[in-house]
Structures are given as structure tokens and as C-alpha cells.
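C-alpha cells incoming
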């Protein structure tokens, strides 16, 4: 009889373990960050609503490697999910980089309009590549920080601008305003600012403060260069292990929590702008409409140069046309 109960116990335990799916998730976001706090809340909600049958095991702070390493580990099954910037997303689906191109968006409302409109389209495309798009996780608007005042497009020509090594969008952007950028890895930027190898960078306010780059620059051009997009992806092979109810729970909670993360990220970026101002960095503003139009025109040139490299012409035309229609129907949102 004792053997019977022991056998029954192990049978029940084995059934429980085999009924549980663990999703190994990796991100560069450090512990204690807004990103990780929301991810922890999301993980707990998934675990609760699936009655412990689905759980996320989180590897924060880049302990599993950078985005390219994480992608390789997902493809061989060592990891299952990750949080990616546009650079990582573009390795899987180049045309998603259209969300990162220069001077395309002018407000959060425009970003929300286009990302919502394209969500189903990109979901299908990512699934064809073996990934489930759980949700967008926006990094925020990117600004140019320099050690010399920059106002006009012409002022840019004297900047020794950093470029994220291997990023075709940055290369096309700066070439459109006659800059030959200096390619470096992100980890080399702070030292390069200190040694004056570079005197210009582009980054979101939150990341600028987090990486301490704001301690090595003097000016910020108060005209957003681009909106940096991000997303959470899950390997389809792991997602397919879930039953239909579990899949629906994960998708619904993803929309809820990653939408919350975007709102909180925007608030954090606004707070970081205040920190940057208080640190003594001077904000230079482009007030002349003709000069603003020159920046927008350079963005159009850069976007055209990326046709055939990241996306086709029809897709770019459609996104640009959708934005123009949105601006006509929603006057006053641009530049908010």
C-alpha cells in the first residue's frame, strides 16, 4: 500500500511538471528598470491566469548576450523569447525597420496610429519567420546630442557623429545630411566622447541618462530624429506548446502590459528630459519653418535610399500616405 501512494504521488507530480510550459525570456534591460518591473508583472499575471501552467523565466541585463546572441539562442532552443530593439527585429524582418526611419513620426499619436495599423501585418510576417509578435515596446523618440551647437542642417556637417555599427538606417540618415558617421559599438561610445573621437550621438533621453552619455555632451537638438521601436517576440515552436486558452491569455496580457510599458516609457523619457535640462545641457530649437523642412526633406531622402535594402517602395509609399491622411484628419497632433 505504501508503494501505491508513493507511485501515485510521483504520477501526479510528473503530470503537473509535464503540464507546465516554461518560457525563457532574455533582455538587455537591467533589474530595477521600468522595463523589468512591467515584465515581472506580466510574468506573474500569466502564471496566475494559467494556474501555474505557463511561466516566464527572465534573464535580465544582457546576461544571455546582446540581441544577436539572444536570437541565435532562440533559434537553437536555448531561449524562447526576448525583448528587442529595431536592430534585432530587423535581423528577422528587415521591413519592420520602417518604424525607425528618420523624421517619419512627429508625435506619439502618429506612432500609435501606424503601429496599430501595421500590427496584424507584421504579426503575420513574423509568424512566417517562426516568431510570435506579442507586442510593441517603444524605446522612444531619439534626439541628437552634441558638443557644438547645432541648429541648421548645415551645422551638422561639422559634427563627428557616432553611428551604431552595422545600422543601415543611421548610415542613410547621416549621409542625407552630408555627415560621414563613425561606426562604433554602443559600449565604446562613452569613452569615444571622452577622447573626442566623436562629438555627437543620437539616443532617447532615458537611454542617454541611463548610459551616462549626458555627462559628456553640451547640446541637444530639440527636434526628434526618429522614434526607436522595439517589440517582444516569442518562438512559435514554444508558443505552439500552449493550449488555445493559454495562447489567448498570453496574447491578451501582452497587449495589456506592453501597452502599459509604452506609456511608462514615455513618462520616463519626459522625466529624463528634465534631468538633462538640469544637468546644464542647452536645448537648441529649430524655429525657422524652412529649416525644419530641410530636416524633413533629408528624412525623405534617407527613407528612399533604404528602398530595396529594408522594404519595397510600395510599402514606404503606403505608410507615408497613411500618415499624411492622418495629419489631415487630426490637425494639431504633429509635434506634440
Amino acid at each position: 500500500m505504501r508503494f501505491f501512494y508513493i507511485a501515485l504521488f510521483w504520477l501526479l507530480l510528473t503530470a503537473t511538471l509535464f503540464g507546465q510550459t516554461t518560457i525563457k525570456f532574455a533582455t538587455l534591460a537591467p533589474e530595477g528598470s521600468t522595463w523589468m518591473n512591467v515584465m515581472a508583472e506580466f510574468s506573474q499575471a500569466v502564471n496566475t491566469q494559467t494556474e501555474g501552467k505557463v511561466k516566464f523565466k527572465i534573464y535580465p541585463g544582457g546576461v544571455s548576450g546582446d540581441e544577436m546572441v539572444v536570437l541565435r539562442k532562440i533559434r537553437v532552443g536555448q531561449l524562447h523569447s526576448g525583448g528587442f530593439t529595431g536592430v534585432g527585429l530587423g535581423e528577422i524582418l528587415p521591413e519592420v525597420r520602417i518604424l525607425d526611419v528618420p523624421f517619419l513620426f512627429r508625435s506619439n499619436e502618429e506612432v500609435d496610429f501606424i503601429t496599430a495599423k501595421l500590427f496584424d501585418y507584421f504579426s503575420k510576417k513574423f509568424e512566417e519567420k517562426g516568431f510570435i509578435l506579442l507586442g510593441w515596446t517603444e524605446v522612444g523618440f531619439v534626439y541628437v546630442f552634441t558638443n557644438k551647437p547645432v541648429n541648421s542642417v548645415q551645422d551638422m556637417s561639422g559634427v563627428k557623429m557616432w553611428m551604431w555599427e552595422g545600422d543601415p538606417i543611421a548610415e542613410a540618415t547621416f549621409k542625407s545630411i552630408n555627415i560621414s558617421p563613425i561606426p562604433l559599438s554602443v559600449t565604446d561610445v562613452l569613452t569615444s566622447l571622452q577622447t573626442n573621437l566623436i562629438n555627437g550621438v543620437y539616443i532617447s533621453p532615458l537611454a542617454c541618462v541611463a548610459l551616462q552619455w549626458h555627462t559628456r555632451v553640451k547640446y541637444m537638438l530639440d527636434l526628434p530624429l526618429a522614434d526607436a521601436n522595439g517589440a517582444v517576440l516569442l518562438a512559435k515552436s514554444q508558443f505552439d506548446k500552449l493550449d488555445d486558452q493559454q495562447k489567448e491569455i498570453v496574447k491578451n496580457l501582452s497587449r495589456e502590459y506592453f501597452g502599459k510599458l509604452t506609456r511608462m516609457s514615455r513618462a520616463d523619457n519626459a522625466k529624463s528630459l528634465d534631468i538633462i535640462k538640469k544637468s546644464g545641457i542647452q536645448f537648441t530649437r529649430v524655429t525657422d519653418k524652412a529649416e525644419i523642412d530641410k530636416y524633413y526633406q533629408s528624412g525623405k531622402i534617407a527613407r528612399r535610399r533604404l528602398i530595396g535594402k529594408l522594404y519595397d517602395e510600395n510599402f514606404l509609399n503606403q505608410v507615408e500616405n497613411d500618415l499624411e491622411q492622418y495629419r489631415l484628419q487630426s490637425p494639431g497632433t504633429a509635434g506634440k
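note: The longest strand covers residues 219-228.
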